Amino acid sequence: MPILLADLLDEKHVDLELRTRTQENAIRKLVQLFAANEQVREPEIFLEQVLARERANPSVVEHGVTFPHARTDLVEKIVLGIGRSRAGISFGKKGERAHLIFLIGVPQKLVSDYLVCVGALARLLKDDAIREQLLRVDTVKGFLETLRVE
Q: Helix (H, G, I), strand (E, B), or coil: what is residue 26?
């Protein structure tokens, strides 16, 4: 049975006040959310895997949204961490500002489920009204409800 986007949404993995100036620190803060909830074995190694992937193949920023990720055996299931930065954080080769960061950890065996989930997220986030709502909403619960409108 395929994994649905709604299955990945967890209030404990959302930071609506991501305050950092660098891509590395933004990713580090989201990995810390996973670590605090025991979603990733060896969080420092997972962090390095994500950063290594970013160095080799930087995530694209489109409409102020980016999807850094790593395929790894350090997670048992797909995990999704979400950060929102009002000021924006420079990502990718062009240094474009991302306001919404969706960090994804993917087990090697679930790559096809990952593609389905990231595709659903990307389609949803192309909608200007949904992105605007995500940037304005005050609560994590409201933020996640906006993402559940699939």
A: helix
pLDDT of 77 reads 92
Element (H, E) at 50: helix 43-56
Find out whether 147 and 11 touch, Cβ atoms under 8 Å.
no
- The topology (CATH level 3) of 8-147 is Mannitol-specific EII; Chain A (3.40.930)
Q: d(Cα 134, Cα 93) in Å, to the nearest integer?
A: 25
The encoded tokens of residue 144 equal 């996640």
CA distance 33 to 12: 7
Token pair of 2 as six digits? 């395929």
List pLDDT tens digits, range 22-72.
999 999 999 999 999 899 999 999 999 999 999 999 999 999 999 999 999
| Pairing of the two strands 14-15 and 65-66 | unpaired
